Amino acid sequence: MTLDTTLLNRRMTHFDGHDEIWLFGYGSLIWKADFPFLERRPAHIHGWVRRFWQGSHDHRGTPEAPGRVATLVREPGAICHGMAYRIAPEVLRPLDVREKNGYLREVIRLHFDDGQGEGESAEGLLYLASEDNAAFLGEAPLDAIAEQIAMAHGPSGPNRDYLLNLVQALRDLGVDDPHVFALARRLPHPSAASGR
Ligand code: BEZ
Fold this sequence. Notes:
The protein has 196 residues and is α+β, with helices and mostly antiparallel strands. It has helices at 6-10, 28-31, 92-98, 142-151, 159-173, 178-186, 190-193; strands at residues 21-25, 39-56, 67-87, 104-112, 121-128, 153-154, 157-158. The strands form 2 sheets. It has a 5-stranded mixed barrel. Strands 6-7 form a two-stranded antiparallel sheet. β6 and β7 form a beta hairpin. Benzoic acid (BEZ) binds at residues 25-30, 99, 103, 126-127. Keywords: Lyase, Transferase. It is an enzyme of class 4 (lyase). It holds the Pfam family ChaC.
């Protein structure tokens, strides 16, 4: 798959004619909602787990030293918690550009966690970086992933901050994510990572 997914995402017609869309965030979208939204609600999806398996050359790393950011991997029976945003369709365009490094829109059923309507769910979309995208790095030992995250910096800041912001956001949601929390525990101290 081409590295720049902007055009592929614009071709999605699934929500044509809708005047609002639910967008599910499982990574930076949980703690960095720098786009207009009508409402946000904690939510989860079935059959996916969050993994730091996507390379970041443009936000949390560079082409020479990519960072690692979250994507989703299919796992039957799993649940992934995050944040759902009700947005106007035009909000997707800038997000397509911001997340152009391998992420494709994927239609998903999301389930709300805030108790306003037991078992309430909605169709929505998320951005997915699947293993066929050029920036996909895939599985590696947790220590190696943590080391890479500790060393990487990009235009959006240190990769470490991305991980720690996600940890805090998940704690605020009352969510346990063993993969994410294990990576945070393995992060070398900042002075060790910078060689000081
Ligand atoms: C997310 O938080 O869901 C997300 C953020 C950036 C790219 C893809 C997904």
